[in-house]
Recover the amino acids of this structure.
């Protein structure tokens, strides 16, 4: 049985109008921002802002890296995506449903891992500490990297 989710639910994959989502985040619904929103919505790779910029810049030559970062920051503020600090550049996750992550130590791929049960954080010794979220990261090799090499390679 695999713990890795193949199709996570995301706050960006809704029937809500993308322009409305941007306005809720305090942004004008420009073509560039709509493109960032749409590119992130279905992306299970947990892209960086630079990844999104490189993917979209040929179709939107006026798109700036600052626009991508500002759009992602605004979507984060309204809880439509989450930044992930997993070492290296910050990645963005459109899946805001509580879940863990599996990170491949060889290729760097990141996959969502659904939570089996709601977990209470074990912080009895941290009096007065307010938990906002609990994150677990599983590190190892993805199926592709763990597979034995084919004969002749």
């Amino acid at each position: 049985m695999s713990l890795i989710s193949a199709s996570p639910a995301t706050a960006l994959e809704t029937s809500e109008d993308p322009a409305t989502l941007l306005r809720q985040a305090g942004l004008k619904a420009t073509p560039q921002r709509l493109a960032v929103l749409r590119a992130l919505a279905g992306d299970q790779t947990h892209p960086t802002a630079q990844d999104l910029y490189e993917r979209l810049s040929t179709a939107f030559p006026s798109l700036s890296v600052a626009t991508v970062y500002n759009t992602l920051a605004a979507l984060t503020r309204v809880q439509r995506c989450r930044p992930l600090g997993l070492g290296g550049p910050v990645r963005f996750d459109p899946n805001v449903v509580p879940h863990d992550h599996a990170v491949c130590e060889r290729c760097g791929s990141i996959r969502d891992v659904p939570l089996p049960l709601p977990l209470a954080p074990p912080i009895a010794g941290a009096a007065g500490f307010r938990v906002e979220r609990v994150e677990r990261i599983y590190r190892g090799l993805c199926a592709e990297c763990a597979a034995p090499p084919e004969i002749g390679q």
User: Anything to note?
Assistant: The two ends are 29 Å apart (CA to CA).
